[in-house]
Amino acid sequence: MTDPLAISLGPLRLRNPILVASGTFGSGEEAQRSLDLHELGGVVTKSVTRERRRGNPPPRIHETASGMLNSIGIMNPGLDGFLEHHLEAFRALPCARIVNVAGESSADFANLTESFGADPGIDGIELNVSCPNVSGGLDFGVDPKLLEPLVAEARRRTSKPLLVKLTPNVTDLAATARAAEAGGADILCLVNTYQGMAVDWRRRRPELGSPTGMGGLSGPAIKPLALAAVHKVRRAVRLPIVGIGGITDAEDVMEFLVAGASAVQVGTANFRGPETPLQIVRQLAELHTREKLGALSDWVGTLQVPRGRG
Ligand SMILES: Cc1cc2nc3c(=O)[nH]c(=O)nc-3n(C[C@H](O)[C@H](O)[C@H](O)COP(=O)(O)O)c2cc1C
């Protein structure tokens, strides 16, 4: 029997539309020990970089009203460390397995993509383009002129589904979305965290220890911003979208679907406990039965915005 929550996400077929977001679930191995990840749509790994990264100085996390600021700084064991210590367990996960990669140059992105590009145990590669590039210092995902060739180069290195995770810290998200589409992305994921800051005014210092004092805001605080981002991008491109930002329950999931996402990723909510995404899957199944939702794909992008007013 086909799963009533099953969905298509571009070339990917998922058991349900709930994935876990990069950086909030490790690579699923730990959760796998206590949870049945069969129930999950998919797992996205923490960003893998060419070299091992120790991350930013502490403090790296600061709680804010209905959100969380982090300046982890892509701490990860690097490509070799991931291949040696995590890949095997990751490949064995019983749901879609997506590796998230982050580079400091276009060549980094291409090479990292190639490293996983033909692995039969990997179902897709997500490019985290929200990182500063070495030559210019600006995030790749901020500049459509940098982004399109970067995606095109990665595209040449794999025939697997290529996901591009966009940063919302831009003036024109539709322009970067179009650049990723033109470069050959299969799926767009949005959003990554919003740049933010917390201040200890008595000490006259930022609360976070990163070199800029800034961090990325996530959690329920950003949900309305992320919904608006999904809605805008849905109108700008034809690619399927994965909605990310402040999702904590099945109602949130349906909001993202109606706004234009075909699937979602759950991030900060995982810090309540690794069982959270599975609880969301179960809630969605209940909601699906109770409200007779039918094919979830029929809900995608059905938002009706009154036009011609104001
Ligand atoms: C602690 C933490 C670490 C993160 N690390 C990464 C990362 O390595 N790569 C990435 O693409 N996104 C990373 N993110 C961003 C999330 O994947 C997600 O896009 C963002 O948090 C918004 O979703 P949320 O509000 O559900 O958390 C991280 C987020 C948090 C909170």
Layout of strands and helices, then pairs:
Elements: E1 7-9, E2 12-14, E3 18-20, H1 29-34, E4 42-44, E5 61-64, E6 67-70, H2 78-85, H3 87-91, E7 96-101, H4 106-116, E8 124-128, H5 144-156, E9 162-165, H6 173-183, E10 187-190, E11 194-196, E12 199-200, E13 205-206, E14 215-218, H7 223-236, E15 241-244, H8 250-259, E16 263-266, H9 276-290
Parallel strand pairs: 3-4, 3-16, 4-7, 7-8, 8-9, 9-10, 10-15, 15-16
Antiparallel strand pairs: 1-2, 5-6, 6-14, 11-14, 12-13
Helix pairs in contact: 4-5, 5-6, 6-7
The structure holds flavin mononucleotide.
The site of flavin mononucleotide has 26 residues, from strand 6.
Describe this structure in words.
This protein has a single domain, classed as Aldolase class I (TIM Barrel, Alpha-Beta Barrel). Helices cover 30% and strands 19% of the residues. The chain contains nine helices and 16 strands. The strands form four sheets. Strands 3-4-7-8-9-10-15-16 form an eight-stranded parallel barrel, surrounded by six helices. A four-stranded antiparallel sheet has the order 5-6-14-11, with no helix packed on it. Strands 1-2 form a two-stranded antiparallel ribbon. Strand 5 (61-64) and strand 6 form a beta hairpin. Helix 5 (144-156) runs parallel beside helix 6 (173-183) and helix 6 (173-183) crosses helix 7. It is globular, with a radius of gyration of 18 Å. The model has no long low-confidence stretch (mean pLDDT 95). Flavin mononucleotide binds at residues 21-24, 46-47, 68, 70, 72, 74, 100, 128, 165, 192-193, 218-219, 222, 244-247, 266-269.
